[in-house]
Design a protein that fits this description.
alpha+beta; Cytochrome p450; two-stranded antiparallel sheet; 32% helix; binds protoporphyrin IX containing FE
Length: 157
């Protein structure tokens, strides 16, 4: 997903080389815009109500992380990709809901963010331009989203 965003916004490449804050925000935004894990599962511990929907105790509730990330009440213009969305001073890692939330939030979230930053910094340091050369193909599973084929042309620095 990040590579697709860079192909659509080549101007980000030089900016990501040395701006660590933007790099982190870019990785967070990529995860918000197109979360690799779409759903989480919870079991209701008690009878409750969520957004007007009654939920009885022991019901299994499917939480769509992809929809959380596109919630207009939480994110301005949620269907647009904005690399600097998480650059604001009040933004914090837990704002990215693609790692889930609560006690069972992803245990590897920080590691995943740092790994993403390293990968995209190294890519940005080596490449001046990225261009998609054909329509990418996605894995069709609903829960874990990824590409099965993504062919790009790169111009090396
Ligand atoms: C971009 C990469 C990753 C994404 C998008 C991701 C996403 C998620 C999500 C959505 C959950 C469910 C959270 C919930 O139900 O609230 C989860 C759980 C978990 N993840 Fe990740 N994950 C990533 C990378 C990693 C890595 C690198 C590790 C370990 C090194 C890891 C370890 C775990 C573990 C142990 C849980 C279960 C936590 C629990 O149930 O208490 N994840 N992850």
């Amino acid at each position: 997903s990040g590579i697709r965003q860079l192909a659509a916004h080549n101007d980000l490449l030089p900016r990501l080389r040395h701006d660590n804050a933007l790099l982190r925000s870019f990785v967070q935004e990529t995860l918000r815009y197109d979360p690799p894990v779409q759903y989480g599962i919870r079991v209701a511990a008690q009878n409750t109500e969520l957004a007007g929907v009654p939920i009885t105790r022991d019901s299994v509730v499917l939480v769509c992380f992809g929809a959380l990330g596109r919630d207009p009440a939480r994110f301005h213009d949620p269907d647009s990709f904005a690399a600097d969305r998480f650059l604001t001073p009040e933004s914090e890692p837990r704002d990215v809901l693609s790692f889930g939330l609560g006690a069972h939030r992803c245990a590897g979230a920080e590691l995943a963010l740092v790994t993403g930053e390293i990968a995209f910094r190294q890519l940005a340091l080596r490449v001046d331009a990225i261009r998609e050369t054909e329509q990418p193909q996605r894995h069709t599973r609903a829960v874990v989203r990824r590409y099965t084929r993504l062919i790009v042309d790169v111009t090396r620095q």
